[in-house]
Prior knowledge:
By secondary structure, the protein is mostly helical. It has a domain at about 1-40. The chain contains four helices and no strands. It has helices at about 1-10, 10-20, 30-35, 65-75. It is elongated. It starts with a helix and ends in a 6-residue tail after the last helix.
Amino acid sequence: MDKMFEKWGGAEVLRRAVRGMLPKNRLRDDRMARLKMFEGTAHPYKQNLLRLGEQKTSSVGQNPVVQAAFQEMKEAQPQQSS
């Protein structure tokens, strides 16, 4: 595995693994064309990552808007009787 990373790099190893898991049909090339991989921390979609406060990792479930939506959904569901 280390030899593969040295020879091709992490992105190509991942690309080959994903390609091997996809169905072997005429849609595989289309799906592979949509796969985007970026090595390291720099990539063009960095501004689209959700960051909450100063946390290094984000959790969408901790977002107050998402929590309010879940609460509204729970209240809207009819109560089940036991």
